[in-house]
Q: What sequence folds into this?
């Protein structure tokens, strides 16, 4: 009660802002990743696949790398009896969930497996690492390594935005982290998919968390204010 009455306690009227990439930033990032993969497939097909997973399936970095509770393998991508593809992961709180795999993500998987010299799609028996180490056996476990790959892609996108005279977009992209890709994927999808579907794919504990990513009302509010005049003609 004391806290509620205190004049020093700040009350927030609106929901906190989600840290995410703008549409232009994301398109530049993924286009740069594709060009990097074309120019140097040995090094950057991996980059393109990582970026696709983090955005398309809203993966946390811990869900893409090997750790004590989780070791992602190729057969975590599985097709059900209806011919639909799903990706199984273990996320925050050691909770297992299934993520619906889009056609675009399936194409990204095919491209990655072709680069590795594998068949286009995994069989249920394919327990090879989803993100194999460049040297040695097993999957990538070093999250710093993945962060550096993503940052390299961000840096290249920043350079491209500056070349395009998009200095403000370049400047704000400098603050981006790996986790922004998850936020961006969720924010983009919740505009066009049912909230409950995005909630389950993202592994949110409640729809209220997913609601934080919905900014349609915010845009409409700004649109209605945009042409408001200070002085009448």
A:
């Amino acid at each position: 009660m004391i806290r509620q009455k205190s004049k020093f306690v700040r009350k927030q009227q609106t929901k906190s802002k989600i840290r995410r990439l703008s549409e232009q930033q994301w398109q530049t990032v993924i286009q740069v990743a594709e060009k990097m993969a074309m120019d140097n497939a040995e090094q950057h097909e991996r980059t393109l696949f990582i970026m696709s997973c983090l955005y398309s399936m809203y993966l946390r970095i811990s869900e893409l790398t090997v750790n004590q509770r989780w070791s992602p393998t190729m057969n975590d991508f599985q097709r059900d009896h209806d011919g639909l593809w799903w990706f199984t992961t273990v996320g925050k709180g050691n909770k297992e969930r299934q993520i619906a795999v889009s056609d675009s993500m399936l194409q990204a998987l095919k491209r990655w497996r072709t680069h590795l010299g594998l068949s286009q799609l995994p069989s249920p028996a394919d327990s090879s690492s989803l993100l194999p180490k460049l040297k040695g056996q097993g999957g990538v476990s070093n999250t710093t390594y993945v962060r550096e790959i993503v940052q390299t892609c961000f840096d290249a996108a920043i350079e491209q935005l500056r070349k395009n005279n998009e200095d403000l977009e370049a400047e704000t992209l400098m603050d981006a982290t790996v986790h922004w890709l998850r936020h961006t994927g969720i924010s983009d999808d919740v505009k066009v998919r049912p909230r409950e579907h995005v909630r389950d794919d993202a592994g949110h504990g409640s729809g209220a968390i997913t609601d934080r990513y919905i900014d349609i009302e915010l845009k409409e509010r700004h649109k209605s204010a945009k042409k408001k005049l200070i002085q009448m003609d």
In short: The beta strands are 77-79, 85-90, 96-100.
